[in-house]
Amino acid sequence: MTLAQPTRPLPVKRRFTRKQRRLTLIAAGGAVLFLAAGLVLFAMRDTIVFFYGPTEISEKGVQPGTRMRLGGLVEAGSVQRNGGQRVTFAVTDGKSTIKVGYDGLLPDLFREGQGVVTEGVFEGAGRFKADSVLAKHDETYMPREVADALKKQGHWQAGSGAGAAPAAAPAKQ
């Protein structure tokens, strides 16, 4: 007589439930999106800057033909109107200066000594061909409500520039 040997159950293939499959798919998709976003940001690391100053452009050795934004102050005495809408001026940051050529209408806030951001192509040899010019408003602007709140709290400093803030319209409530 033979003794019956105990039988072991066959291994059962474990299947994912519907919820587990869905979570796995979502996690994989999230990982792919995260990786793609990281690669895009890595590739754009030098172009995310809002604008470059003249000194940064000369230090980085930007190649002619590179499209970028140039920002700084319009140098005093550098604005020349060359007939029609052609204007040349110099943008400076105090250390370096770049000559800018622009064909078109300039914004109302554009003037010598004022901040400006130009978008266009660096031509090399300290020259920049602008497609658009944006004049920056005075950085000392402060809404009346903020200035009044600072005065009430005792944090107001007369030389902070907010005293020259234009009259703001009453806040809508």
List keywords for this structure.
5-stranded mixed β-barrel, alpha+beta, 173 residues, 25% strand, disordered C terminus
Pattern of helices and strands: HHEEEEEEH
Main sheet properties: 5 strands, mixed, barrel
What portion of the residues fall into strands of 2 or more residues? 15-25%
Strand element count: 6
Taking all Cα atoms into account, the compactness measure Rg is 31 Å
Cα separation of the termini: 98 Å
The oligomeric status of these chains comes to single chain
Low-confidence stretches: 160-173
How would you describe the shape? Answer: elongated
Structural class: alpha+beta
Average residue pLDDT:
79
The count of helical stretches stands at: 3
Tell me the helix content.
10-25%
Q: Strand order of the main beta sheet, please? A: 1-3-4-6-5
